[in-house]
Amino acid sequence: MNLTLDLDSEVPIYQQIRDRIVEAIACGEAVEGDPLPSTRQLAADFGINFHTVNKAYDLLRAQGVIRVNRKSGAVIRRDPASGPPEPGFSPDWENRMRVLLAEATVHGIDRDETVRRCAAILSGFTARERTTP
Between β-strands 66-69 and 73-76, what pairing exists: parallel, antiparallel or unpaired? Predict the structure, then answer.
């Protein structure tokens, strides 16, 4: 998995790390059981504070995406083949999606264009198709 961050972005670095890891799982670049770099290693690679990486990993752990073990470090806990979402995931996800769709509407992107863009993005997430028999 190759993570790319924009250190000049307004999006916090910990959020970018979290987002890139989730995208890597959705694209099939990372699967359940794959190890993640240690917080110190990833921080050193990007020249950032390890607490920033730790915050991203804590967020991913709380969301059930990774597990952290003192011996094995951080590993991918969940990929699309893991089955249905965990309880409580859908309401939070729908709330976040509602805000994104509202932003699209406010900026003048019509319904058809929104659906087209969503479909195009979803088509790039091959992990589910790859794991479905």
Answer: antiparallel
**H/E element, 107:** none
80-98 pLDDT per residue, tens: 777 788 888 888 889 999 9
Q: Residue 60 in contact with residue 14, Cβ under 8 Å?
A: no
For residue 132, the model assigns a pLDDT of: 43
Query: What would the CATH number be for the domain defined by 1-133?
Result: 1.10.10.10
Contact 58, 74 (CB under 8 A): no
- Kindly calculate the radius of gyration of the chain based on its CA atoms and give it in whole angstroms: 16
Please tell me the pTM assigned to this model.
0.83
Domain ranges of the chain: 1-133
For 33, other C-beta atoms within 10 Å of its C-beta total 11
Largest Cα span, the chain:
50
**Phi-psi map region of 91: left, alpha, beta (phi>0 left; psi -120 to 50 alpha):** alpha
